[in-house]
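Task: sequence design from structure.
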């Protein structure tokens, strides 16, 4: 659907835009163990909290049908325009008291934009089961990547360039497939997205554990996407 590929492209673009900053941080990790643990703890709490407005946004969208008219190119434009507006606002407010409310507003918007796809899936006989499976799978992948990040001792900063290339390929492929509409292409890109962003999850968590990310709002946004 439009919303699904909009999310994939948004995540790819966000990783692309942040890649230079991450590479700069990779050259010299800073911060004490206490500071790193505090960033990780705050990130986990904020990530968990961000699920609430996401679910609320999805519920509002399904209940009201407010996003039903956002189809085709219009839906993609609204989705990417709104999302990048929020990403810009988060970047500007991440060091202030407004950072957390802006991030939570962003997650509400994301839930709202995904409500059209969720409503369609709920129309299937096993729709609820599919959604719960997807949620469980995502939680499982996060648990595995978090566990790996905590036990891997080697520096994973070299993964950044390869993940960056992968995100660029997915982004371009997603844009092309919006116009081509290939089912096989969508399946291939979906598999690639799962692999690339699971690895990105590991990479981002390792950045926090190694002191390469010192702002928990930025860390939460990256893991959320």
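Answer:
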């Amino acid at each position: 659907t439009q919303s699904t590929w909009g999310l994939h492209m948004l995540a790819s673009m966000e990783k692309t835009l942040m890649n230079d900053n991450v590479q700069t941080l990779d050259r010299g990790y800073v911060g004490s163990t206490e500071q790193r643990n505090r960033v990780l703890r705050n990130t986990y709490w904020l990530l968990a909290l961000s699920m609430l407005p996401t679910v609320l946004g999805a519920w509002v969208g399904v209940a009201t049908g407010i996003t039903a008219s956002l189809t085709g190119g219009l839906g993609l434009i609204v989705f990417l325009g709104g999302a990048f507006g929020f990403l810009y606002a988060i970047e500007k407010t991440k060091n202030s008291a407004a950072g957390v409310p802006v991030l939570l507003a962003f997650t509400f918007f994301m839930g709202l934009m995904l409500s059209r796809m969720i409503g369609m899936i709920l129309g299937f006989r096993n729709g609820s089961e599919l959604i719960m499976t997807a949620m469980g799978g995502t939680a499982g992948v996060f648990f595995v990547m978090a566990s790996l990040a905590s036990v891997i001792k080697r520096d994973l900063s070299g993964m950044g360039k390869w993940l960056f290339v992968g995100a660029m390929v997915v982004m371009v492929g997603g844009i092309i497939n919006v116009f081509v509409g290939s089912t096989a292409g969508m399946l291939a890109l979906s598999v690639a997205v799962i692999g690339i962003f699971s690895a990105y999850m590991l990479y981002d968590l390792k950045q926090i554990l190694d002191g390469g990310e010192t702002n928990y709002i930025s860390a939460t946004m990256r893991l959320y996407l």
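Residues 141 and 194 are 10 Å apart (CA to CA).
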